[in-house]
Amino acid sequence: MMGLARWGVWAGCLLICSCVWAEDRQLTVIHSNDIYGQLIQRDGRGGMAARVEMIRSITRAGPALVLDAGDVLGPNGLSQLDQGATMIAAMRRANYAAMVPGNHDVSLGWDVLKLRGAEAGFPMLVANISRKDSGPPPLPGHVMVQVGDLSVGVLGVLGLGEKE
């Protein structure tokens, strides 16, 4: 797990938008994190079907950028059955632009994470992780996303805090 076993892991996304316009522009940023693989709604809360519909409703109203800051694939047992494949498919339907993996995503292993990333249709980003063997980084660090006529840079930063 690339030396992360002794660290607490948190994730985040940093937006960088460098635009000069003669008029005001509006961009809605929809951010999620700590979904924990919750595919099914419980007590009227959560669930990916409701989340996808809410995101689609917001994006119909105007330009929106949809990002996630990790802990998507688990630890919910239903999501763990297919190692997050259903969760990633739902995120793809909701037009997520990028995500940074969290500890529950990384705990499945980098190979599974890369497989989910290949299925996603959006990048999984980690700018601040390198390999001990000096090989290529496990995931890309940034991406430029086109949202309507706006170009937005997204940088993925994985936060590491040492465990007690």
Summarize the structure.
The protein is an alpha/beta fold and 164 residues long. It has helices spanning 48-61, 77-81, 85-93, 103-106, 110-120; strands spanning 7-16, 28-32, 64-68, 98-99, 142-147, 150-162. The strands form two sheets. Strands 1-6-5 form a three-stranded antiparallel beta sheet, with no helix packed on it. It has a three-stranded parallel beta sheet with strand order 2-3-4, with helices on one face.
Brief descriptors of the model:
164 residues, alpha/beta, 3-stranded antiparallel sheet, 3-stranded parallel sheet, 5 helices, disordered N terminus
List the helices and strands and how they pair.
Blueprint: E1 7-16, E2 28-32, H1 48-61, E3 64-68, H2 77-81, H3 85-93, E4 98-99, H4 103-106, H5 110-120, E5 142-147, E6 150-162
Parallel strand pairs: 2-3, 3-4
Antiparallel strand pairs: 1-6, 5-6
Helix pairs in contact: 3-5
